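Sample pair:
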Amino acid sequence: QVQLVESGGGLVQAGGSLRLSCAASGRTFTMNYGWFRQAPGKEREFVASISDSDGRTYYADFVKGRFTISRDNAKNTVDLQMNALKPEDTAVYYCRQVTVSGTHWGQGTQVTVSS
């Protein structure tokens, strides 16, 4: 059974950095991994994704140049390095895995950026 566990969230001042990690367990053919976020009162939105086949990455415009998604196949983790954080980046961040059997979500990790 697929399970995703996020870690690395916390409180940081504006301009600071955090690194989120998503640990995937269970054997399945993965198509891509992604990070999404949901702020209070807002819908969940796409942040970044990485293809499992060729490592191609995609980013939302509002994080380009600040966030980097990466994959560690040996550890079976997907990380999101977040630099130059802004108060508007405050949200619960979720890891998503798209496989041939379906889509799976982690429980989320809170990121709070103070001004």
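The chain has a mean pLDDT of 94.
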